[in-house]
Description:
Number of domains: 4
CATH architecture of the largest domain: 3-Layer(aba) Sandwich
Largest sheet: 5 strands, parallel
CATH class of the largest domain: Alpha Beta
CATH superfamily of the largest domain: P-loop containing nucleotide triphosphate hydrolases
Radius of gyration: 31 Å
Shape: globular
Number of strands: 8
Low-confidence stretches: 359-383, 385-397, 484-495
Number of helices: 24
Helix content: 40-55%
Structural class: alpha/beta
Strand order of the largest sheet: 2-3-4-1-5
Amino acid sequence: MTQALYRKWRPLAWDEVVSQEHVIQTLKNAVAGDHVAHAYLFSGPRGTGKTTAARLLAKAVNCLAEDKSRRPCNECAHCVAVNESRFMDVIEIDAASNNGVDDVRELREKINFSPSQGRYKVYIVDEVHMLSKPAFNALLKTLEEPPPHAIFILATTESHNIPATVLSRCQRHEFRRFPLGEIIRRLEEICKTENILADAEALSLIARQSSGGMRDAISLLDQLASTGGQVTLATAQSVLGTTTSQAVINLIEAIAARQPASAMNEIHQALDAGADVRTLARQVIEYLRQVLLVQLGNGDQLEATPDVRTQIVAHAQVLPTHELVRMMRAFNAAAIDARGGWAPSLGLELAVAELIEQPQLPIETGSAPRPVPRPAPTQPVTRQSPAKAAESAPEEPGISLENITRVWKQISNLVKQQDPKSAASGLVNSGKPLEIQNGVLQVGFVGNLLPEKFNRPEITQPVEKAMKELLGVSIPVQGFDMGGKNTLPAHVKPDGMVATALQNGGEIVDTQ
């Protein structure tokens, strides 16, 4: 039987473990200084090396090398026996299938027997969070006062489910996800050694699909290599149920342009080609996340090909941050939605419908219509007349509602820095920039008290100054009441649908 690649390439020495230096160095020092603890808890995502590190520690404490800094040596009889899974004093227990109190009691009875081969009996308990509450209680006494020849190494992906009484008795080490570049490097090394032909794009896709788990990435490579021939991007996408980056980009642009037919067509084409529903939703989220990273000044963290990177940067310049967040939330709901069992695409279709029903995103595409203008604000609290505002402050080139919305939080922070005691910062946080009308930025509030406070010169002046500093343009601001329950906005017809809804118990929660 052929050995799985992830087992064949499991590290056998400390130096072969990558990206977990914060854990490995501590364990190496403990072995070299003869300060090994009696109980450890290794926690972190799956496939990040917890069991591997546990086996290395078990091998090191039983290694026969005279120089403790060289342990494990992988040359002595004990190290070779551990590598071949025939060392009697390293006992691995799967807590998922041995989680009862009787299993722990049996362990407690056997633990008092001296090691048969090495210095220590090492118990590696995998998925320890699966133990029942009585089983944890039975384990407590042993963890607190184990025999001198026993070492416990508990491994879990869910440390939050471990009782505090157990956590307090263990030396804890948190394992991290592997960086994308490190996973790709490891896959390239395996391909070179195992004579596997694989495209760089395919390896990059495998690494992204592994979600930071090295074992998962190697297992995916093993699966794709077994199909025969060269591992191409198309093969990887077919087997892994993913779609092309261009399909994701087309879907986002169709949503932004309010073209539901095009958006639905992109979804159905991807699913017909074999894409998995939840995987497609996650791909959309990941793309939008990278757009958000560029907007937040973290473009160096992009994990994309040059062509896709160009698209990401372009979208970062035109998609408002709040719209990105809204889109990510909608597709995240689709990724975890269980209602589409009988109609797999339902979650994605609902996400598209929800997003397109909202005001249009300000993105320029080949056939995108112009953005729909917002209606006039309701119940404005007048600080100066619109005519005078238009004369004194015409809209300057380069100013846009999207740019203002993007830096609205920064405006609040800058106002607070200028005068920490002023109420202006809190009022900015309470308001919402809704439109630029007659050269004046209209800021909406719920209720009429906050607009009155906001429209005072001691508030508006520092806000306008902050906007000038951040955006390089001058524009006056004006607060208004967006309208509360059963308040009919001035621009809404009294005999229209909105008025009818209000008369039948409806409520206006926002005016856009």
